[in-house]
Amino acid sequence: MRFIPQFTESFFYFQEKMHPSDSNIEKIDEISPWYRGGLPFKCTGCGKCCTGASGYVWVNEEEIKKICQHLQVPFQEFCRDYLSLVEGQWTLREMKITEDRYDCIFLDGKRCMIYSIRPVQCQTFPWWPSNLQSEQRWQETANECEGIHSQAPMVPFEQIQESLKNLQQARKSFYRGI
Ligand code: SF4
């Protein structure tokens, strides 16, 4: 589920909660026919997907504006204090807790402080191409997400594809400038 970036940046911490293969979401309907019967998942709110190895949560301008409005923070101020620039694209900052643990800057205990307006990347977890590319990858995701288990309610294939498409749509406009 998590990817440790290959590069460093002196001013910011980074959050990568998506696999690099998620950067090219194409031909969604052809990606993983193995889960056409749906997959079992129900979020327990454990918050584990908001912490762990360092990584990114990419955001687009619309999402940034929503969060600004929610927090009552001016746009420029928000970009300065809550975002990091990674290879020309903006991501939510993270807080280094230990050597191998980084929390999303909006994680408060197990609670997301911007849950109601959280970015599409967060809304669509665990329905990311990297998690769905094979049964093995899905099992690896299940090892990190307690909401994925055989007793969880079955999420229909169509709903999973809808999430993938929403993510694809958001990715077209991930924010690239201040
Ligand atoms: S790790 Fe899974 S169960 Fe826990 S908060 Fe994230 S999506 Fe929900």
Describe the structure in your own words.
The protein has 178 residues and is an alpha+beta fold. The protein has one domain. It is 31% helix and 15% strand. It is built from 7 helices and 9 strands. The strands form 4 sheets. It has a 3-stranded antiparallel β-sheet, with no helix packed on it. It has a two-stranded antiparallel sheet with strand order 1-9. A two-stranded antiparallel sheet has the order 3-4. It starts with 27 loop residues before the first helix and ends in a 7-residue tail after the last helix. The N terminus is likely disordered. The site of iron/sulfur cluster has 11 residues, from loops.
Can you tag this structure with a few keywords?
single chain, 31% helix, 7 helices, two-stranded antiparallel sheet, alpha+beta, three-stranded antiparallel β-sheet, 9 strands, binds iron/sulfur cluster, 178 residues
Q: Report the portion of residues in β strands.
A: 15-25%
SSE order in H/E notation?
A: HEEHHEEEEEEHHHEH
Using only C-alpha atoms, the radius of gyration works out to 16 Å
What's the β-strand tally?
A: 9
Order of the strands making up the biggest sheet = 2-6-5
Small molecules bound: iron/sulfur cluster
What's the overall geometry? Answer: globular
Summarize the structure.
This protein is an alpha+beta fold. The protein has seven helices and nine strands; from the N terminus they run αββααββββββαααβα.
Q: Secondary structure elements and their pairing?
A:
Elements: H1 28-31, E1 39-40, E2 51-52, H2 61-71, H3 75-82, E3 83-86, E4 89-92, E5 94-98, E6 101-104, E7 107-108, E8 111-112, H4 120-123, H5 129-132, H6 135-144, E9 154-155, H7 157-171
Bound molecules: iron/sulfur cluster (SF4).
